[in-house]
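Worked example 2:
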Amino acid sequence: MAAALRGYLALFGAVCIGIALLHIVFGPASIPGSVPVNATMDSEDRFYATLFLGFGAAHIWCVRDLGPRGGLMLAMQFVFFLGGIARLISWAAVGPPIPLFLGLGAIELVQPPLVWLAYRKAFPAAM
């Protein structure tokens, strides 16, 4: 279980880094269904992408010693969960996004509790 969780979290971190790099290089044009934006929105997208890059890198760092670094990893998973909540707020405020983002929102709401359960099972002493 520990090895599978480490592998999953390393892959998750790498995907986050890849998504962030796409946004840093291509800006909002990397968002499926996006429209041209002004310089302020472009700047915001690229700025937040650097934070997502750090988020992914921090997951990979945690994987290297997951037992003691699990608290940080779980805190980041909670932030990821809050991202799913933010998508629900957006949906309520302006309507549903494209199906891809509905799926991403589902992942953001389901993955963190599953990761917490897997961590609890793989590292019971750390809990």
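The chain has four helices and no strands. The radius of gyration is 16 Å.
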